[in-house]
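pasting for ref
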Amino acid sequence: MPSHTYRLTNRWTGNLGSGTSGYKAYGRDHEISIAGKPALLASSDPHYRGDPSRHNPEDLLLAAISGCHLLWYLHFCSDSQIIVVSYQDEAEAVMETAADGNGRFTKAVLRPHVTITSTNKVQLAEHLHEKARPKRTKGNCSLRRCDRLRDRFR
């Protein structure tokens, strides 16, 4: 089986002068660098003292789920001669926080809005979302309900 290796550098930029001397003494900012790509300015979620103007790991996890579904769906449409001219997903995820402060994602909902050129292929286009679902949840996906999906075709 072929394998693919991905590399990045994650550099903490939140030292406010005294390192991690106290919970409120340091920033959560960090910079994610991947060779040949623009850097991602990241932080923790604002609920955990993060900068709301930066991407946080929870945003990026949801983006990965949505993006993976998008790419598999477009691939299956192309193979099925369904011409997609527009695709926009209004995705949402829920993270529950336990009493000890640990969080885990319990649900991700994808709401793709798709425009195709042939109205007689809507049923097949809807089915291809179901075909793409196992592709995005392979591996160690810990989401219990990441398969809730609402489609809207134009």
